[in-house]
């Protein structure tokens, strides 16, 4: 799994990366529908992680599906790769552009930029018009060339200082693209790893005051019953409470 390998390559020696894929959901996320369906899998993986006393979670899809819902269910930090990459980009450049996969996902990225407060920093969201799963294929470098070409156009036309790659599937391409384009290129998986490590080292956890408090305890029906927030589930989070 390319994202897991990219995360492990950048992680500190004391950090263990566990890359998981929900057993239920779409094979790739390329629409609002895909995102909505995928949220149940994200929440299920967080629940499993709580049983393993996981210290932090990374939602490795650029749409950050289920990010706020996941934060409600744990005190551990939960980081979305889009939000992480936007933060990193603004620390090294006053303006950036996003290069993503399909044109229809541009709107999703634009919504995130607005919701996270980064719209004024982003000059443009661009699409390379490639399906997400094409990033997994060995096509002799054709897909990589398309992404590099779009990044070069962004550099020339957008008056930016950095580029954010808008798909977790591009996690292994950052060094090559950055070298070819000649400006900083930020990829969200590795950015999220470093932010997660920073939050852990600072002993900062997800606040349980306000709208990220645990959801009201209630029994969920049908296939999502296992996601019910119960008192015993909240007990798992007591390990995060310090003095």
Automatic annotation (TrEMBL):
Domain of life of the native organism: Bacteria
Gene Ontology molecular function terms on file: amino-acid racemase activity
Family to which the UniProt record says this protein belongs: Belongs to the HyuE racemase family.
Protein name as annotated: Asp/Glu/Hydantoin racemase
